Amino acid sequence: MIDLGLDKLALIGVVALVVIGPERLPKVARMAGTLIGRAQRYINDVKSEVSREIELEELRKMRTDVQEAASDVEQSVAQELAGLEGDMRDALSNPLLEPGQEYSAPDPVAVKAKDFRKKRLARTSAIPAWYKKQHGRRTRVISGAARVARYRPAGARKSTVSFH
């Protein structure tokens, strides 16, 4: 700003005292102070408004950059999904085939043998009896007549008559 030293301020004060006069000098000094204060507040308001606008413009630019990045990511994900979907359709239309290989139905005897081996392994594997009992697997096989006799209601049981 303007470089005002002590000697220059004293000179301005003496000139103002001579020109304005001692009666009106305090009133003019108050008015000058008020005007300078208003000017400083106005300048500070303008500075803060300009800085807010600059920050707002930076935020807008940042928002557009983020939106562009998000749309790029969305497009790349959509392309990848479309490619994977096409690959899945190809795989489902001809499962486990190499290029140039033709599809042949599995041998029914081999399928039955594989199922038999699975079932036998499940029956004879080392599963604890408590686990079989808890999950409803039979540990012992009993005949139909023995099962009926065992689970017959108590009132319906025949009493055995013994002849002595």
TrEMBL record:
Pfam families per record: TatA_B_E (PF02416)
Bilayer topology annotation: Single-pass membrane protein
InterPro entries: TatA/B/E, TatB
Localization terms from the record: Cell membrane; Membrane
Keywords: Cell inner membrane, Cell membrane, Membrane, Protein transport, Translocation, Transmembrane, Transmembrane helix, Transport
Main location: membrane
Presence of the UniProt keyword Cell membrane in the record: yes
Function: Part of the twin-arginine translocation (Tat) system that transports large folded proteins containing a characteristic twin-arginine motif in their signal peptide across membranes. Together with TatC, TatB is part of a receptor directly interacting with Tat signal peptides. TatB may form an oligomeric binding site that transiently accommodates folded Tat precursor proteins before their translocation.
Subunit structure: The Tat system comprises two distinct complexes: a TatABC complex, containing multiple copies of TatA, TatB and TatC subunits, and a separate TatA complex, containing only TatA subunits. Substrates initially bind to the TatABC complex, which probably triggers association of the separate TatA complex to form the active translocon.
Family of this protein: Belongs to the TatB family.
Protein's recorded name: Sec-independent protein translocase protein TatB
Organism: Noviherbaspirillum aridicola
